[in-house]
Design goal:
- This protein has 275 residues and is mostly helical.
- It has one domain: MetI-like fold, CATH 1.10.3720.
- It has 13 helices and no strands.
- Helix 7 crosses helix 9, helix 9 packs antiparallel against helix 12 and helix 11 runs antiparallel to helix 12.
- The longest helix has 32 residues.
- The radius of gyration is 24 Å and the shape is globular.
- The model has no long low-confidence stretch (mean pLDDT 86).
């Protein structure tokens, strides 16, 4: 009986922790709920036991209650709308440049040899360092904010898409050439369809980077947006509102990440079935 019990325990442990083993959706959901519950519970406990300064680090209950005042008294919905517009307008412009250029660079070596030195150099330059130039070129209006968010993501997106384009199997291209396809036909019917799942994945990854630059874009001469609200709260030491802004950005970013994941599953169901 003891040996049977040991084997049962060993089997249970193996099932609980297995390498790259898929788990049910319900299990993943409740594990996520548990992690956030523990995080907020420890945070609230630390404040309640006076282990932290309640002024500089208010508890989650205080932070969540500040949302009521933000939405009812401070036009927070408009700030969120402006932030969404800046993120997605700048990201759409970045995609318009990065997707075709990344595909061409990953497909044709001469295109890569011409553009990659520039892309690689700009990729290592921090986007906030351009703020003084952007302010002189575009002023303190929307153009400066959109340009900063654009510069923060476009070089990384080009590089990711270029790398994915290079990974298209050579056999696909050679087969299309054997069948008489020209460059335009192969690009349109072989390379781009093969790349589309990875392009959407790259866009999902880089959209997260765009959210990280949002506050930087909105703290410079901005009168609207989540970042501008956080700077106003800083003047009056409303730490709860600053943390509410941080939580808002996290919720928005996570929500759109989940939407893109669902879009990936919907449009490329054949990849899910292969897994």
């Amino acid at each position: 009986m003891n040996e049977t019990a040991k084997q049962s325990t060993s089997t249970r442990k193996q099932r609980l922790f297995e390498f790259n083993h898929a788990i049910p959706t319900a299990t993943a959901f409740w594990l996520a709920i548990a992690s956030w519950t523990i995080f907020f519970g420890l945070w609230e406990t630390a404040v309640a036991l006076h282990l932290t300064n309640a002024v500089l680090l208010p508890g989650p209950v205080t932070v969540l209650s500040s949302f009521v005042g933000l939405f009812s008294e401070k036009d927070y919905l408009y700030d969120i709308g402006m932030s969404l517009y800046r993120v997605f307008a700048s990201f759409a412009l970045a995609c318009l440049l990065a997707v075709p250029l990344g595909i061409l660079m990953g497909t044709f070596r001469r295109v890569e040899a011409f553009f990659n030195p520039l892309v690689s150099a700009f990729r290592y330059l921090p986007a906030p360092s351009f703020i003084p130039l952007l302010l002189m070129w575009f002023g303190a209006g929307e153009g400066e904010k959109l340009a900063l968010l654009f510069l923060g993501v476009v070089w990384f997106l080009i590089t990711l898409i270029m790398d994915h384009a290079k990974s298209v199997p050579t056999d696909f291209i050679n087969t299309a050439l054997t069948l008489g396809g020209n460059r335009v036909q192969i690009l349109r019917t072989v390379i781009i369809p093969t790349l589309l799942p990875n392009v959407l994945t790259a866009m999902r990854q880089i959209l997260a980077v765009s959210w990280t630059y949002l506050v930087i874009a909105e703290i410079v001469a901005a009168d609207s947006g989540i970042g501008a609200m956080m700077m106003r709260a800083k003047r009056f030491v409303h730490i709860d509102e600053i943390m509410a802004g941080i939580i808002t950005i996290g919720i928005l970013g996570l929500s759109f990440d989940l939407l893109l994941r669902k879009a990936h599953r919907k449009f490329f169901q054949y990849l899910e079935s292969n897994n």
